[in-house]
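Ticket #4471: structure output looks truncated?

Reporter: J.K.
Steps to reproduce: submitted the chain below (178 residues) through the standard prediction queue, then opened the result file.
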Amino acid sequence: MKGSAISRWLGERRYSTDMIAGAAGAAVGSFYLYFKSKGEVLLVLMELEAFNLDLPPEVLAGGDTRAALELIVRAALHADLEYAGVYRAWREAIVSEPAIAAWDLPIRAWTAGRIAGAFAALAFLRGARRDLDSAMTAALVNRLFWDLLTDPQALTEVRFDATVNTLTAMLYYTLFEG
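Returned output as attached by the reporter:
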């Protein structure tokens, strides 16, 4: 079973180590050779989900910033939707597993840092707001993305394009003047 299939499967139900090993086509003993707990599986899947926030070269060369921003938002949400089950399982696990809860803040800080890095690169483009608190903006956008990805109704096929368009407009008018 591929990573995204496992993550969707994890997000659909309560899971046990027997179920995870079975879905991966492995014995439970093999599971414990690689992981101490099912929480460690979540940590690995969270690392796998990291998406690419590198800015397209045409944006840095002065191309259509809003169109490129839409491509970035679309790609980021699309990539993360492959792991939406992991996000939902993560949200559930931080409530009941202290070891996972301890990782929540550093992982969210890392994802906010990736967004802040993209915002810093955009800050050099023509029309970028110079007075923007990019770290705070990145933290808020990060929280919004996490919330969207843990809500199974938020990014349905019907709502995906509207969500991308709205997020793009919100980010564009937050990051750029006029």
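Triage note (M.O.): checked the attachment and the full token line is present. Residues 1-13 have pLDDT under 50 and may be disordered.
Status: closed, working as intended.
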